Amino acid sequence: MKLVTVNLPRLYSLAKTALALFGLAAVCGFLLLPSERQLLKTTLPELISAPAAAEPSAVTGGTADPGALEAIQEREEHALAEYISRRWRIADSAAASFVSIAYRAGKRYSVDPVLILSVMAIESRYNPVAESVVGAKGLMQIIPKYHLEKLLDHGGEDALLDPEVNIQVGARILREYYRRLGDQQAALQMYAGAFDEPTSRYAAKVFEERMRLEPVRQKARKEQVAQSAV
User: What span, in angstroms and rounded, lies between the C-alpha atoms of 62 and 73?
Assistant: First the structure.
């Protein structure tokens, strides 16, 4: 019988080399994977919606029927209001009102209404009379002294406790910051007064909330389209 000799030092060297190569491959794979925040940023619609993308007709196959578009929007608003009421434990009527105003403000300023609702969730948890220690007021926590010119037509800073005024002004601010910076993450950071904060935590929180709301909107759209097709 022929004996097979085992070269232990050589086997040890080969094992070390294999483990090193495996570790290097794992590190490279990790570095090549997009970060969670980058995925959130790139898979969501832009803060400022292009006119075509802002309309539900993109889901209806391009139909321009005003009645169909109105029905889709109503279904979206109802579904979002139900979800927000349940998630944040606020009255159904309040949630419905906030969603309706967000849609009007979104249309007026070409800002995604779901983005507006996401900012509200992070800023005030949908509390229309919220006030911070730094003087931010209302649903979208607007600091009056920085936006006095936007409040002139509404009677001054006390009007910020009116949900309609607060949401309209907040949407206008978001639009202005986005157009100035050209980047939704940067615009959100500036909105929060944290433009130089390196981790962009505020924007990440808004994106995460938006990721919860967007499937609710898309499901409502598809259900309404399917119902209309019957």
Answer: 15
Distance of CA 100 to the CA centre of its chain: 17
HSE-up of 222 (CA within 13 Å, CB side)?
A: 6
Integer-rounded Cα Rg, in Å, for the chain is 25
d(CA 219, CA 224): 9
Positions of the chain with pLDDT under 70: 1-64
Q: Which residues contact 199 (CB under 8 A, 6 or more apart)?
A: none
Residue 56 to residues 2, 76, 92, 207: CA-CA distances in angstroms? 79, 10, 24, 21
Q: Do the beta carbons of residue 185 and residue 203 sit within 8 Å? A: yes
Instruction: Look up residue 52 and give its two tokens.
Output: 């075509």
Residues in the chain: 230
Q: What is the pTM of this model?
A: 0.76
Q: To which residue do tokens 């097979």 refer?
A: 4
